[in-house]
Every structure is written in C-alpha cells, then in structure tokens.
Automatic annotation (TrEMBL):
<feature type="active site" description="Nucleophile">
    <location>
        <position position="40"/>
    </location>
</feature>
<protein>
    <submittedName>
        <fullName>Patatin-like phospholipase family protein</fullName>
    </submittedName>
</protein>
<feature type="short sequence motif" description="DGA/G">
    <location>
        <begin position="154"/>
        <end position="156"/>
    </location>
</feature>
<feature type="active site" description="Proton acceptor">
    <location>
        <position position="154"/>
    </location>
</feature>
<feature type="short sequence motif" description="GXSXG">
    <location>
        <begin position="38"/>
        <end position="42"/>
    </location>
</feature>
<keyword id="KW-0378">Hydrolase</keyword>
<dbReference type="InterPro" id="IPR050301">
    <property type="entry name" value="NTE"/>
</dbReference>
<keyword id="KW-0443">Lipid metabolism</keyword>
<dbReference type="InterPro" id="IPR002641">
    <property type="entry name" value="PNPLA_dom"/>
</dbReference>
<keyword id="KW-0442">Lipid degradation</keyword>
<feature type="domain" description="PNPLA">
    <location>
        <begin position="7"/>
        <end position="167"/>
    </location>
</feature>
<dbReference type="InterPro" id="IPR016035">
    <property type="entry name" value="Acyl_Trfase/lysoPLipase"/>
</dbReference>
<dbReference type="Pfam" id="PF01734">
    <property type="entry name" value="Patatin"/>
</dbReference>
Amino acid sequence: MTKTVALALGSGGARGYAHIGVLDVLEARGYNVVGISGCSMGAVIGGFYCAGKLPLFREWVGKLGYLDVLKLVDVSLLSSGVIRGDRVFSMISELLEDCLIEDLDIPFTAVATDMTAKKEIWFQRGSLDLAIRASAAIPSILHPVKMNGRTLVDGGVLNPLPISPCISIHADYLFAVDLNSDAAMPDDFVFAREDTGQQKRDWFNSVVDKATSWLDSKRRADASSHVDENIGKLEMMNQMFETMQLSLTRFKTAAYPPDLMINMPIESCEMYEFYRAKEMIELGRHIAEKALDAFEQGSCSPYGQRMA
C-alpha cells in the first residue's frame, strides 16, 4: 500500500542539495509525496520537484564546479559585498518555463518574508519563478524582491523550516528536512572533496586585479584589503543567519511537530558552497536511509527523530 507524505523542506543554502537525495530515497521506498512546502533552497528544490523538472535542475547543478558558480554571481566586493544573482535566477527561470504554482501536479507552497509588513508570505498561486526568487533572497547577500509595494526576502528570516503549510495536506505522514541540525556527520560517510584552495586564491586575485587595474599600487593594496574585509563580513552574516535559523527551527517544530524530522548536519557544507551538488545529494540519500530505517522500525536515530 502506497504511503503518502506531506514534506517540509528547510533553508540552508547549498546544503539544500541534500533535499534531492531525500526525495530520491522517499521515491525508492514507495512513499508518494502529495504536497511540499519549502523555504529558500527548500523552495527551489521543492518547486522543481512539484513541476516535474527536478531532473533538469539536477543535471545543471551537477556540472557546476567552483569557478562555474563564481561566474554565475555578480559580487560587488569593492562595495557592499551583495550578490546580484541575476544569472542564477535567469537560468532557474529558463528551466521552469513560466510555470504557475496552481498548475503544478503536486501542491506547493513557497514561504518568503514580507519585510514591510513583518510577516510570512505563502506563495500558493502565481509565478513559480517569482515565488522561488522571493523565498531565496537572503538578507544582506541577495537583493530582495519588490512586489506590489512590498519588500520580500528569504523565508528563513521568520520560518526556516515551514511545516505549517503542510498541516492542511491530507497525507499519512508529515516529514520535515532540517538543514541546520547540530547532528554530527555520520562516521560511515566520506566526502570525496575537491581541493578548491588554489582556485579560490586565483579567482580572488583576478577579481582584485580587474577591479583595481586603474589604481596605483598603494590604492590597489588598500582595495585588496577592502575586498578581504567584505568577504569576512559576508561570512560573519552567513554565520549569524545560520545561528538564527537553528533557534527558529527549534521553536517552530515545537509548535508543529512532524512525524519524522530528518536531520542534515550543519557542518556538512557551508551555505555558499554551491559547487558541491553531487556530494550533498549523496549525503542526503545516506542520511535519509538512516532516518527512514529507524522510523520504519519504530525507533529514532540522530538523523531521524520521531516527533509527533
């Protein structure tokens, strides 16, 4: 007998690739996902899945190396350090082909934050592309979405793991995937991590050289220091945002406990490491297997908590 699942997919930047692995395992084990709510990267993966276009997204991100990701973002390192993200979202828009949320085969909700009204916004109709853009606009890093006089940013500001939109979905189980868990990395999983240190140094030097080619040596040195300072600020903002999300997730899940919480270790991947799709998808599979093994046996594991 098919088991139906309403699925909440949390925010966490590049760790969100793990959502793909979780969906793979659910399908392989015979679970039928009948509704998804997502925030930030959870909205990206959930939206593509509900549109039946996740294979296209998987193929695209699976080819992205470190330098490919850098070419997709426009970083103003000499000013605010803000990432425009236009090229990324243009590609997402091209892959989605003007999908409307109400036309999707699987009900979907993308959660964003309305900074003007200081409340959550649930996208359940309209442009899927716009909903994803708004849900994934990380404050101080990606530009917000302006819509009907409102300023919309990442849903993780108020609800990094949006379980509440799943409550009304008729399903046998409610599962949630937390990308900001303090669970330890599994001992039996080893990353085949590519050494990107030299690539990072080469890219950093090329950015500084291009941005400061018209400056004299003294001012170039000052500009290089300023770039370094802005990168440090971005990393600090990233850490602050992740800390906030971890606290908010605990609060939200206490109010809306899922039947199963699948825990992805926050230490597995930095929020901005979008070149690590393949390994994070594999980690998602690995942890989902562990979580579901325990759930189906009526027990718990560090990676799968029975909460309801």
